[in-house]
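This follows on from our talk about sequence and fold. I would like you to pick a protein and set down its sequence and fold. Go ahead and set the record down below:
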Amino acid sequence: MKTFHENPQSRIRSRTLSTEPSSETPSEGTADPTYSLKSEDIELQTWGVDDTINRPNNRQRHSNLIGRIFSGPQHPEDLPPRFHNLFLQRLDELPLQVSRLVSRKVKASIILVYCLVWILCLRSILYPYLSEAPYLSSEETPILSFSCGKEDSIWQGGNDKCGLDGQDCRHKINDEIIIRCPALCDIGSKSYAAIDVGDESIKYRNFYVGGGKDEDYGRDTTLPYRSDSFPCGAAVHAGLISPTFGGCARLQFLGPQYGFTEAASAHSSMGDSIEFDSFFPDSFRFIPNTDGQCKHCRDPRVAVTIINIILGLPLIYLSINGQVAFWFTCITGFWTIVLTFDPPILIDPSDPVNLPELISLGLERFLPLCFMLLVIWKFISITTLSQPSSQIGKSLIWYPLFWVGMLNNVTFDRLPVDRLTMSDIRAMPGAITTAIILLLFTILCVFLQGYQLWKAGRIRTYLIGYPLLTAFLLFLSKIPGLQLRIHHYIIGLIFLPGTRTKGMTAYLFQGVLLGLLVNGVARWGFASIAETDESLFRDDSAGRIDAPIFSAYTKENTSVSWYEDNEIQADTNPATSAVFYSLLINDIETYRGPNSTVSIDRLAESDAEFGSLLSSSLKYNEGEVKLYLRVSRLGRKDEKRSAYSKALVVNYVSGNELTGELLGESDYRG
């Protein structure tokens, strides 16, 4: 046996060697594990050049850390939530115990009967609203179904869309109609495209001008609203229609008005109306229904949604393998959005093709969505929802948060963020702060779920895949003429793969993301991830070529002039001119032609409608009226049109005296 002192190059590797003599003597030819060393046996050696200590340097430490992050823990685990309370434990295990006692055929029969009762219940509530036209019981006055926003049958649009002097949109004085409005018009009556009102451009705000309760005529009568106001939003503002259940209201046209005052809203979820201190050629007010009762006016969307949520809960709780829960929840949520809670087209039962068209559109989006959901189930949700899992976690966390994402129009849409584009975030008040908070919250959620993926030993794929996805999105954002658009369903598609675990965070995040995905497809379809700049303008005239600029006004002949800050020059010959101009006065087109100088007095003489309005307004306002002028450049056939300019405010005084001022710089040109 070779002793330690016989090999000078040997190194002591054991820290348990004793210097005391051993009580036992090993047999020859065998290694003695208890062989002990005496102090005189140890010979100190000097280290040679090749005898360096093998200590890891910084690079090796970093490499080991990265390797550990990629590979995960030595013993991966991915366990569903567990409860320490005995009652919750038994409640969590109850569905599994019941499932063992019931055969598959009995389960299928119970589910079939349950769904049949569910469908019949919904049909009795929803079908009359979708298929039977509303009416007034005491007369044959038609009831028109309106959306919450702009209504072309009342006012076709802003700026020049109603023709000279608004002739294409004006109504006969004292004409009456009854309108049916859907639920949720407190949020649905916001304008997401800028609308000119005097020297303001209204955007991201409920759009109704003037109005409010008229205390002299009773509680169901209002003061006049400007006719370009959103009628359903105005009815909710006046307190005549419920923002939760919708309803019907009688509307009466009043003709020209010479001022519209700001009025407080009857509901705290809506803002005050917009003030306008000059004349407008058309208006309306709401008056009470004197006789009879409106039928099929109440919107059942809230009741239907509550029923679907409640009746879906037992299926989620009792579904052991998770597949039944997943498909029933997604299918129910999709058709809830399409048919009632946020339908992609206006529901108008007086139109016989409206309901078939709605169902057809739903099926067009539903079939591709089913394939997408199948992939999500096979590769993501099966891990979270199948056994072993927590029935309480699925029922009280995953399922409610699915509906939070599903009902996006009353949850996330109420945040002050419109679209995730830099132009919209900068334009909407409060959007920058909200976007920063959402970004920080998203980063926190990513780290929390990333840790669960690491614990489960699945982090490697995501550390490779998500940087590649980020690079692809950055590439799309740099394509000239296109803007990256992260729609609801795309948010779900991006983050859902990262929820492939069984822990509490997977229940939290997967439910919301799946709801956003199904909601986005049901409401908006498979919109493109990259859209053209022009498609993002909505009805805004801003974003086109620059508008002309007001340069001067002349008191002697009440003329206003403008010029273009580019090389295009207007030809003064109407027969050969390639450039026309559109002049708005009080948000109504009053002049269209090639001239870049226009006299207000001459306009009043040559245009009887405008002259009559101006004259009546001067009498109403004791000889002085404020005018708001904007101008736009048009091509011969409205091609290459510009934005409308900032407003020129003119105090027009009877006696042919004109004073005015050009507004300072503003954030938006309407």
Summary: Confidence is low (pLDDT under 50) at residues 1-42, 46-52, 567-577, 656-670. The CA atoms of residues 558 and 602 lie 9 Å apart.
